[in-house]
Write a structure and sequence with these properties.
This protein has helices at about 1-15, 30-55, 60-65, 65-120, 125-160, 165-170, 175-190, 190-200, 200-210, 215-245, 255-285, 290-310, 320-345, 350-355. The chain has about 400 residues and is mainly alpha-helical. Helix 4 (about 65-120) packs across helix 13. The longest helix has about 55 residues, at about 65-120.
């Protein structure tokens, strides 16, 4: 139990830190020169390299599943890639602190509701559904408060700048507004990871029960599938920018080695968040969804904001704006805890109530499992709320 909680916290540190290396890139380095290699590592090289090592019969699993099973996870993975790409943009526009608060807040809200509405809409008007709705409402308030903090920060910084800089600061005002919109929008799009995984149940079941992979290994087959869908949008967009702006030439300049190292560190932190949370999720047993999820999201938001403050993002900002962002973070954490409680209520239902007609009992990597003894796969907590761990469609793959 203690070790499981330690793994959850390690995952939160990784999740709240993967954007930090971007702060150490030269100011004149174009955005796509860092994020292009990052998305290449995350969505292509790491899955292709580690997939066959981690998962038994890695590629065979997909050929057996068929295109009709793979198409929806790939499609929603494509949309997740757009969200991940715009999250990278929001780091550049509004900094780590605000970007993490807005993105994670939006992910928590929509990730908690989207799979439930798609697959289990009848559960909305239930006791645990009401608690989840309350948690979503609290998180929405937290996102609004964090957004207000960003606007107050921009105003206070503008007042503190010298008069001679007024023409330049006039162009910065929309940058904050655009950044706030991108930050929230990225969180909404990142929720598509949860939706993608909710349609990938047959892939998980095939990997685990037909090919004999343990839960955490089988889960990687789903992760890789969604990441490949995301590669088309995130890495593809960076390639377009590299060609359009001719910034691919920067890879031939001195210092590119350090740039690639930073991108690689970001990629390992990004995927490390999923890996460590997965270990903690299993180690915490029945508390993995409720306690583990709440601990991960809360600590990840805190870590991201600590990095933002430590790197001077709020230097010169008014006390009022700082008070608003701190308040927003606290509200988001409260909302996460309420969502964890709602999911715990859902998991605690009697077996005969939980196993609704047309669905399978037991939780899995947002895909469900035909075997009820325990929650048997690893979720990505950053991509969705706790509800997604049980969402699935009724047309499950034949039991293995």
């Amino acid at each position: 139990m203690v070790l499981g909680f330690v793994f959850v916290l390690l995952g939160a540190i990784c999740g709240g830190s993967f954007g930090l290396p971007s702060k150490f890139v030269k100011k004149d380095m174009p955005w796509e020169n860092l994020w292009g290699p990052f998305f290449l590592f995350v969505t292509v090289l790491i899955p292709v390299t580690l997939g066959p090592v981690i998962v038994k019969d890695f590629y065979t699993i997909y050929s057996v599943a068929g295109l009709n099973i793979l198409i929806l996870p790939l499609l929603f993975g494509f949309l997740w890639g757009l969200g991940s790409m715009t999250l990278g943009m929001s780091f550049a526009f509004i900094g780590l602190s605000l970007a993490y608060a807005l993105n994670y807040g939006a992910q928590i809200m929509f990730g908690s509701m989207a799979p439930m509405l798609l697959h289990n809409a009848d559960e909305v008007l239930t006791p645990h559904g009401y608690v989840i709705l309350a948690g979503v409402a609290v998180c929405l308030l937290g996102v609004i408060v964090a957004g207000r903090a960003g606007i107050l920060k921009e105003r206070s910084l503008k007042k503190n700048e010298p008069e001679t800089h007024q023409p330049q600061t006039a162009t910065k005002k929309p940058k904050m507004l655009i950044g706030l919109v991108i930050g929230v929008g990225s969180g909404i799009l990142c929720t598509c990871y949860a939706v993608a995984a909710s349609y990938a149940g047959p892939v998980l079941e095939s990997a685990q029960y037909e090919f004999g992979n343990p839960p955490w290994r089988a889960a990687f087959a789903v992760t890789a599938l969604i990441l490949w869908g995301g590669a088309l949008s995130s890495f593809g967009y960076c390639v377009v920018l590299l060609v359009k702006n001719k910034t691919w030439k920067n890879f031939g300049k001195p210092g590119v080695g350090m740039l690639l190292v930073l991108a690689l560190i970001m990629a390992f932190l990004h995927d490390g968040a999923i890996f460590f949370f997965g270990l903690g999720y299993i180690g915490l047993g029945k508390l993995g969804i409720s306690v583990g999820y709440a601990a991960f999201m809360s600590f990840a938001i805190i870590v991201g904001n600590v990095h933002g403050f430590r790197t001077g993002e709020w230097k010169g900002a008014s006390r009022k704006s700082i008070a608003w962002i701190v308040t927003g973070i606290i509200i988001l954490i409260i909302g996460v805890c309420i969502l964890g409680k709602g999911n715990h209520m859902r998991e605690s239902r009697p077996a005969e109530v939980a196993a609704a007609p047309g669905t399978t009992h037991g939780a899995a990597w947002r895909g469900g499992s035909p075997h009820p003894p325990r929650q048997n796969a690893i979720p990505d907590p950053r991509a969705a709320g706790p509800e997604t761990h049980r969402a699935r469609r009724g047309n499950a793959m034949p039991r293995g």
